[in-house]
Design brief:
Elements (H helix, E strand, L loop, with lengths): L5 E13 L2 E5 L5 E4 L23 E3 L5 H4 L2 H8 L2 E5 H11 L6 E4 L4 E3 L4 E7 L33 H12 L1 E7 L5 E5 L8 H7 L6 E5 L7 H12 L3 E5 L2 H4 L5 H15 L4 E2 L8 E8 L2
Parallel strand pairs: 3-4, 4-5, 5-6, 10-11, 11-12, 12-13
Antiparallel strand pairs: 1-2, 1-14, 2-3, 7-8, 8-9, 9-10
């Protein structure tokens, strides 16, 4: 009598490009693009552009900083997707990137959007907690992490771009993605290492299978910080994102995840971290293997 030796059930494909930009394909045919910022050269260059995307039915904008939205207009021109953005920034994003107002789906924290192939539950989030730059430009004595004395903030080409940049710090929204196969993916960005207490208190009650996590910088105790996220959420797979410092050669990505996974093993956690190679498709599956 013959028995199956293994079983693999695919539930989505995805690939990572740069910053927080992902392309996710679902079995039902829809494609979600998160935080479109794809430029082969110039500002926010990453070696890819919107022509490398294979599809886009829905765009999700986490917040309105340039490294999350710089290619929004080009993505819309190519695919004409629905665009999701925080309700406060939605109008200005339409104007800045020439997206028709009717194609914008403004959201607020607590909203749920069901697209059939996937559902998004919108969560409140904080941006990085180490940026105390004042609107007046006055140096803040407590801002000793992000902006050093005499250091200038970002520059903007237009007043609207500056407005969107400032609102990107104010309005930052994460999500939990659910599929009809009962797979849950958590996404948190803007707050490296999930250090905001209110965010941590929220995520400890959410238990996604996979979590896309804004990486803690390699200059801090990142291994314990990222292991904390896996322990807090109970996720089985962590995908660190916003990893430009790794691609610029500031640290070894394999060593980074190995150190996280070592801490996870020491704590007896099931979850593990894995960096994704830029532009490479990955199939996420559930399965059983005969031992």
């Amino acid at each position: 009598m013959e028995f199956e030796k293994n079983l693999t059930v695919p539930y989505l494909k995805l690939r990572y490009f740069a910053f927080n930009c992902f392309e996710i394909k679902f079995p039902g045919g829809k494609t979600l693009v998160i935080d479109p910022c794809l430029n082969k050269e110039g500002r926010f260059s990453c070696g890819y552009d919107v022509n490398d995307l294979e599809g886009c039915d829905v765009v999700y904008v986490n917040h309105s900083h340039g490294d999350h939205v710089d290619s929004l207009g080009k993505v819309y021109d190519r695919f004409h997707p629905l665009v999701m953005a925080n309700a406060v920034t939605a109008y200005d994003l339409c104007v800045q990137y020439d997206v028709p107002f009717i194609q914008m789906l403004p959201y607020v924290s607590g909203d749920t959007f069901d697209f059939g192939d996937f559902k998004l539950d919108i969560l409140h989030a904080r941006h990085a907690l180490n940026n105390l730059r004042r609107p007046s430009g006055k140096e803040d004595p407590f801002d000793n992490v992000f902006f050093k004395p005499g250091m200038k903030g970002p520059t903007y080409a237009t007043e609207l771009e500056e407005k969107l940049g400032n609102m990107g710090t104010l309005y930052n929204n994460n999500f939990v993605l659910s599929t009809p196969q009962n797979i849950q993916i958590g996404f948190f960005a803007g707050n490296p290492g999930l250090t905001a207490p209110e965010d941590r208190n929220m995520w400890k009650n959410i238990h996604p299978d996979i979590i896309f996590a804004h990486r803690a910088k390699y200059t801090v105790d990142y291994a314990n910080m990222m292991a904390d996220v896996l322990e807090l959420t109970g996720a089985r797979i962590m995908v660190p994102m916003h990893i430009e410092d790794a691609y610029s050669g500031q640290y070894d990505p394999a060593e980074y995840t190995a150190n996280i996974n070592k801490v996870c093993a020491e704590r007896g956690l099931v979850g593990r971290a894995m960096f994704l190679e830029r532009g490479q498709w990955y199939q996420f599956t559930s399965g059983v293997n005969k031992l």
